[in-house]
Amino acid sequence: MSEPSPAQQERLAEWSVSRSVDIHCHVLPGVDDGPETLEDSLALCQALAADGITTVFATPHQLGRYDGVNTAAVIREARAALQAELERAGIPLELAPGADVRIDERLPQLVDAGEVVLAGPAGRHLLLELPHGMYLDPLGTIEALNGHGIQTIMTHPERHRYWAGSTERLQSWIEAGAALQITAGSLLGDFGSLAHQEAWRMAHAGMVSLIATDAHDESRPPLMTPALEILSQQLGRDFARTVCLENPLRVFRGERVEACGPA
Length: 263
Ligand SMILES: [Fe+2]
Fold this sequence. Notes:
alpha/beta, TIM Barrel, 14% strand, binds fe (ii) ion, 10 helices, 42% helix, six-stranded parallel sheet
């Protein structure tokens, strides 16, 4: 692994953590709506390192419109190939496995068959994405995955309109054992006013466990550093540390995460 970037060194020293983990990022080239080419992918990896991130879960879309295309084997091979390119290019970034998995009634069987890529080296979490065009209740899936010893991480609930302003539905997922992941850019207004408002509402209400970049390319860059800063200012340094650093590290280690509220 290449020498850490100045931003990475600063992150680890300032927050006394062993890694700065991003659990959700579309970093692999040519597999989904993330970077198209290897060059674009390496540019995104440089941006992640410059954002202080040391370890990123490579989480391309799986199932939904990528069903049968982004198989577990394809994703694993693409991750290994990109890690080798990073070493060749001297970019200090550790890639861990993952996928941004569209909800699907076959999920428990696909998990059993090893057809779905679980999150991180420990593989005790699954990133679950709901469709934007219609509402599908994830409760049954969350419970079924619990039965497999897997915690569900709901990706960017703040960006869906169905439950805007409501707490009950989100709370029922949390009570069932799921963790909510907010996208860093939502806190900064990059996904519009509703996502901005919802992200802060969920954070204030103590419903959030994790912040991730969900970065794709230049138009959706990693924004962990500004997210850490604004969360520290608005909701306190302990809260920022838990959702941006400690809980992502727990996921990396395969430990369950809880929803966290400001002090
Ligand atoms: Fe995503």
